[in-house]
Hints:
The chain has 16 helices and no strands. The chain is an all-alpha fold. Helix 1 packs parallel to helix 6 (152-172), helix 9 packs across helix 16 and helix 11 crosses helix 14.
Amino acid sequence: MNILFRKYNWALSLSSVASLSIISLFVFQILSITFLGIGIDTDTYFLALAFPQFISMAFSILIINIFVPKLSKCSLDTKALLIRNLCSEIFIYTVLFICSIFLLSNLLEITNLLPYFLNFENKKYFHLCLILIPFNLLIACWTAYEYSNDNYLKIESLTLFSTIISIIAVILLKDSLSLSVLIYIVIFRLILLYLLLSGIEAFKIFYSRTSNILFYELKDAGFNSANIFVTKSDNLIDRSLLMQLNQVGIVTTFSLAIQFILISSSIIAKTFGNRTLRAFSLIKDSYSLRKRSKLFLAEIFVICILVQLLILFIGNDVIGWAFHLANLNQEHSEDLFSIILLVSGVLIGGSMRQVVENLYHSSGISHNFGIYSTYFFLAYLVVKIIAFLNFGLIGLCLSISFYYLLDPVFLLIMFHLKNGFKRPI
């Protein structure tokens, strides 16, 4: 028993902090929605965040996937120099990108051709949320740096701290909380997290030397870069489709359900999945790589089943109790739990996909991963739109669930077909 405890002590510690970090972020969302009330304002909030989140997530994943293996093989001095230059480069590019989007959205006054979140009063919230992009990417750079040093607990602890500060801010400002104030709090949280991660290096982005590091790495990533931008557009597409239902609060309810199920998936992925990128990068033998990956996948699968059963048996009561305390409409509570059950495939598939994806990156065949994943996603996208048009919200949720379940299986099969199944002699 002591041996088993020592073996999983590190994972349990990381899981605890990661769980608190992610759950606290969800609590922040719940409190914000409670004080605003589920309705047009909260729908606008999630719509305004959709595009900045899409850009931030896509580039953050690329940064971590590309630079964790690279930094893991560098000395500490080289790591620090590389990260400083990368942060400076990203800051310049993102500021230019934001200015371009701002000018473009103001020059194009034919609003009926623009997405919903650029129309009328929602445009100002969209512009405000664009500020999130540079800080998200700067945080991703320092996350890659800390991951390469095995400082996973540091990342989660600082993330937890910044979120707690944001929760306190929301509670203190609850009587005067508006959509603009909420977005300012979200921006403040990211700035705080960046300062905590970078320390005295924070302001060196203004005078560090740039050398087009990101440009050349993205160019080398090739199809994998395109794959991430295609597959991570899922959330943006979902929210755009849901607007066609013309139901007030549906975007908020759906977004909360997806976040809820992704919390469980993210906790498992952070605890058992993220560390596999560095672990796989240090394994040279293809047979050992496959053997190690099977152990990781088995761990994740068992944990996912247990979490899924827990959600099934007590999820409805917990959500109903929370909505009652928050004085929110119980009808939204039932809708939320129904959507959570319908998209529950995200839990298992999303957690296991991280390990499968890391197999490709650590094996030097990210290009193949990009090709397989993109084609599979495009096929799923067609199915999802057809399902939504014919069956509405239920069709959308079920298509998402089946995609997340089948995607890692398909990718794992293609990985073995590419690398062979035979044990080395």
